[in-house]
Amino acid sequence: MFFKSLFDHGASFFGLIFLSPVLLVVAFLIRIRMPGGSVIFKQKRVGQYGRLFTMYKFRSMTVGHSGSSVSVKGESRIPPFGAKLRKYKLDELPELWNVLIGDMSFVGPRPDVPGYADKLQGDDRRMLFLKPGITGPASLKYRNEEELLAEQDDPQKYNDEVLFPDKVRINIEYLDHWSFWNDIKIIIYTIFGKNL
Q1: pLDDT at 66
Q2: Among candidates 134, 131, 119, which has minimal Cα distance to 168?
Q3: Which of 28, 33, 58, 137 has its CA 20 to 30 A from that of 85?
Q4: Under the phi-then-psi rule, with left for phi > 0, alpha for psi from -120 to 50, and beta for the rest, what region is 115?
Q5: Residue 32, SS3 per DSSP
Q6: pTM surpassing 0.90?
Q7: What is the pLDDT of residues 90-99, one digit of tens each?
Q8: How many CA atoms lie within 13 A of 9 on its CB side?
Q9: CA-CA distance, 66 to 25, in Å (whole number)?
Q10: Phi-psi region of 36 (alpha: psi -120 to 50; beta: other; left: phi over 0)
Q11: What is the C-alpha separation between 156 and 132, in angstroms, rounded?
């Protein structure tokens, strides 16, 4: 995966430079539209080989909220401007820094909060061989995840019993059939909002 690593470092470096005006504008708007908290949201996530790392995102929720790690469209802890950031994935732009420093990749499983990796058993634990990604095949399939969860009577249960196992299956398949050109295809599909 030499080309994957080379691409990640090069593209994230130039991406941060190219998108710096967007990053500054978004940071300014968060400060104005959602005052009272940090612009950047930091959280421990499970990375490659099960190691914890700090993931950086733009804050899209209210300060001091309490709630599930599962996000549902329309919930009160997500203000209107935060919902827009999440809809257009602008809240994930700071993850380019995580890619640059080697904690993440452009393509891979989305990094989970601690606890979910403990549920992986047997062959499924091979998913931890992968660096977590900004996007991936499971992200493309479930790009409307918050809307899907909003339709469920018990979003947490649906996530744990339906979505999580299917994402694991998809990510194991990605690992077994990895190619650099497939990564490029996933990135292009992500940018243009297409499904695999």
Answers
A1: 58
A2: 119
A3: 137
A4: left
A5: helix
A6: yes
A7: 999 999 999 9
A8: 7
A9: 28
A10: left
A11: 22
